[in-house]
Give the backbone structure.
Amino acid sequence: MHIRKERIDRGIKARTEDIFALSSGWDMLYLLAPRVVPILLLIILTFTVNPYWQKVLISAAIFALLALSWDLLACTGMVSLGQGLFFGMGAYLTGIMNHYFHWPLILTLPLSALFGGLISTLLLLPVLRLRGIYFSMITLVLPLMLVRIIEATRIFGGTEGISGLTPFGNRWIELYLSLGVAWIVLFGLRRLHTSDYGLILRGISDNDQSVMSAGINIYWYKAQALFIAGSIGAFAGAFMSHSYMFVGMPVFALDYSILPIASAVVGGMGTFAGPMLGAFILVPLSELLRGLGGLRIVIYALSLTIFIVALPEGIFHYIQRKYQQFERRVKVDRDS
Amino acid sequence: MWIGTLIYGFINSVILALIALGFNLTFGISGVANFAYGAFYILAGYGTWILINTLKIPFVAAIVLAILSTMLIGALLYRVVLLRIRGLVISEVIATFGIGLAILEFFRYLGFIGFEYTLPVFIDGSLSIFGTFVDYQRLLIVGIGCLLALFLWAFTHYTKIGLAFRGIAQEERTALSLGINTDWIAMLSVAFGAGLSALAAITILPLGTISVEGGYDILINALAVCIVGGLGSTGGVILASFLIGYAQMITSTYLGPHWIMIVSLVAILTILAVKPSGLFGKQKELEERI
């Protein structure tokens, strides 16, 4: 006789991802808990921590937004190495609108999200045909180039940047706006992903030629995905620059490109909840490690590499599997 | 004036070719885009600096040691990391990028910033060519660049390892069936690429200071040259380095040194958008665009 671990899927999980066979209130709770408990925990957290850690929560939400936008692109088969492009685009747009035109914050945030997404999409439109590593290289290069152009031409404040943007004023509004937008985007994208529209996007990443042969214009869908992801990233950038009251060349920095990827890889790509989880782990972690200074980015980079080699599915997939399965020890015959 | 631009443009082109050859070797053979390339370059630079100035090892021994240890690190990178994700292009890129970032930022954290971090020139002095003064180091770079190109050509055509390199570049599975250990050869290609980056670092870095930002610039320059020339095509890389080298020199003369890197970046963007296989590349069209 031999003891072995047996895993069985829970009964309420039907064959598809979004249809469940519920028979009791407990079953309902089982589905509801992973969606509601994190939100409740976060709300409790916002009231218990000091203002410094509230700022950390804001920046976690911002990075979560960037990671979500990265994940949407990755799900569509476009792996970006430069979320800094979207981030910086939104940040500079809001800086220009706020500093040169003196538009209020309530106008600059949505407008820079909209136009940031639009401009990024237009910038990347000529290279939508590229696949895999070639698209990644373009996205890696674009933010670096924009930095150099700003440095060389000294537009928009050049190396000094633009400071003195309108702050939010109330830290509770700031906190709940960022967290709220992050959760709305998370649930929105998860819903989008299971719809027919999301099926097309996933199809493009799995096998773009077969999607094309189904008579679907993949460039149009890719452009739409880019616009959605770009807008999310640009909103994050605009929000961050109002929060810091400053826009400058650092917005195109590698941090904003590498941390979202790290969050997505650590959390689990392709689930949206994973990148969110990753951001809410990595950003506070990096805050705890602030004393290490420059070593933080080393740690991100190494954790990125370790996860992609050793645990490519990420934390979320792992948790999800554990949550949806029973595990028990059973006796089996040795010789079978 | 224009003779000076001509001569320095030529030198700049050879420098670019030296930088790009290693990246191109690795990519052309194993298909691994080694985004840690710039980090290897800087690692070799700081490594040599430490060997010479802290450990007081003689110059020539330090050079040999630095090149060998960079090769070893390249081999380890393949053995430990890349072997497990071989063929997953995106994972390869993210993993090597992560490693490169970690190496570069670790040096920044250790505080390797300043003008004292520079390597000694091989021979001091300069000489006048048509009224333009050129120092011996730059002439040496041209010499080493030409020798290296010749050596690589001979190596890949007349030695067993070189032929195996070309074999797995053309068709990995067939090479495997002919008794070539593809994992071993791919590891060697990453190691050789790293070694070439170290060689480039030791010959080029005496012209300036070693800096962390330099690592990113090196990666971008290598990418620019390889993409314009066509990833994996050595002849294309040499021609492309002359194209970009002269373009950089001309923009630097007429617009200012701020614009040098923009030339590389614009070159990458235009070529990728218009003809991603590069001017002379023979990559499979469908793998790069649809």
